[in-house]
Automatic annotation (TrEMBL), chain A:
The keyword Secreted does not apply. This is Spermidine/putrescine ABC transporter substrate-binding protein. The keyword Signal applies. Pfam families: SBP_bac_8. It is found in: Periplasm. PANTHER family: SPERMIDINE/PUTRESCINE-BINDING PERIPLASMIC PROTEIN, SPERMIDINE_PUTRESCINE-BINDING PERIPLASMIC PROTEIN. SUPFAM superfamilies: Periplasmic binding protein-like II (SSF53850). It comes from Blautia intestinalis. Residues 1-19 form the signal peptide.
UniProtKB/TrEMBL annotation, chain B:
PROSITE patterns: ABC_TM1. SUPFAM superfamilies: MetI-like (SSF161098). PANTHER family: INNER MEMBRANE ABC TRANSPORTER PERMEASE PROTEIN YDCU-RELATED, INNER MEMBRANE ABC TRANSPORTER PERMEASE PROTEIN YDCU-RELATED-RELATED. Its main location: membrane. Residues 65-271 form the ABC transmembrane type-1 domain. It holds the Pfam family BPD_transp_1. This is ABC transporter permease. InterPro entries: MetI-like, MetI-like_sf. It is a multi-pass membrane protein. The keyword Cell wall biogenesis/degradation does not apply.
Amino acid sequence: MKKLLVCALCAAMVVPALSVSVSADSKELVLYTWENMFPQEVLDGFEEETGIKVVYSNFDTDENMLEKLSMAKGGDYDIVVADDYIIETAIQEGLVEKLDTSKLSGWDNINPLYQGQFYDPNDEYTAPYGAGIPLIVYDPDMVDIDIKGYGDLWDESLEDSIALTANYRVINGITNLVLGQDFNDQNLDDIAKTGEKLLELAPNVRLIQDDNTQDSLLNGEASVAFLYTSQVTAALQENPDLKVVYPEEGLGFGVMGMFIPSEAPDKDEAYQFMDYILQPENAAKCFDYIGYYCTNKAADSLLENQNLVVPDSVTEGSAVENISTEAEEAYNKNWTEFKAACD
Amino acid sequence: MKKQKSGSVWMILPLYIFTLVFVAGPLIYMVALSFAQPKAGHGVEWIFTLDNYRKILDPVYMKTFTGSFQLAVTSTIIICLIGYPFGYFMAKLSDKWKKRAMIFLMLPFWVNSLIRLYGWMIILQTKGLLNHVLKSLGLIEKPLRILYSYPAIVVGMTYVLVPFMILSVYSSAEKLDWSLVEAARDLGASPMKAFWTISFKLTLPGLLSGVILTFIPSMGLFFIADILGGNKIVLVGSLIQEQMTKGNNWPFAAALAVVLMILTTLMIMLYRKVTNAKELEGVG
């Protein structure tokens, strides 16, 4: 009886070991990103075309990803999709592989609007994978003026009628653009000016809210709203008559980037995957699925949801960059002062 | 006897450990954090500084304290005006109706307060129930813009906190010896005089503990200001929350929390001094 048990235990130990060695033989790729970032259809299509199985591994926050990746010293994962600001840190810590773009036939499909950003100024490490762009949306029936840019939000006719999302860096950033300053201006005197300008916006603000901000536009509480991408999509779905404004001062956005960790175990497979996603027809499916702005120029016309395509006239945009603690605090103070003035 | 004693120590021990780990631990961590520095990007640098406290003295942040205080005072006064008579007359009901009133009072607690506040949003919004009713009654022509205003926040605060006042007044009014009131009336006191000299004085501890139970939470209930006030009034609570989540400045948030805690502790001490109460009466 005892012998039998020992045998069984040995067998139990051998079986998983066997299965591991089997899977190591067949080609595999570990994709590390948030949940629901790729449609199953595209992942299946990749496996069919290349025979490489995609193992989807999740993180819930960028910070978590960075911690795991630095513990693995840039190994364990083959391809990562994360937010711009954390990629900057990852690159600084040497966790990101320099890309050999000759291996990427779809590299030129990328929309240049999203290239050369602060986290990867020379486009050496990342390929953008979707962008979030806060935009102005308004109800033309309730607004007398033609809104063209951020500056119009300051118009007196909009008293007590604007709904704002609550991202203090973005709101400070667009105020910077109105003043002709840099979106990420770090000069403390400039930031003080931004604060003063923001106070002038206060009388027009009806509410400040991060979740479901579009609701206030749909139920008539506000006639103008500054919304996140998913909220813009939701608002237009409910009321297609709403007008979307790509502000003339330029966009402020957040980009998600795709990169290969420096010690990725299966780099060739990672390149193949990246290139597969850069192909227009696959990219279009992905952006339709995740609902972020299309960063692939060649895929623009293929998207079912054309609201996720930035018009050709828009050529300028900047992302929210990591800035000094002092500047961050000054922006934060502007924000608190602004909110208190809104009442 | 000895055995029993050591047994009781073992019974209490988990409680002490629990308190140490989950109350004292986080508190110490919070105080320590309030003397640290924020790291660029995110995280904390453990370098001693008093900057976080110095920053609170900045008029921008001082205003959030006075603003919170004002809102708490306003809400508490309204809560007293509604809650005291409610609790007082509830204690005068027959046993059967007391039970029913209690059920009606407790019923809303079965639903999460956030959901109830969203209900208020539907009532108060421009195209909402209240405006609809007022309009069809011909009382107003243009819809009132109540949602996302100061009054909307006060309504929300009052709604959420008034049960605490009612219960606290009720429990002290229930203990009231009504024969004292009858005696006063027999001796010729008017109903008002009998109320002020006897009933009111005897239910005062209930009222005061109700004040503490409503005033202190209303200093920190930021989500009401967020949901019904459209986030336009910066309360200490919302400032702390924002510094934690968006501002990436945990040390400053910790310093604000420490100051808020000291202030509320002072208020409780003041309350004890005024009422000479050893503990919150009517509650304990």
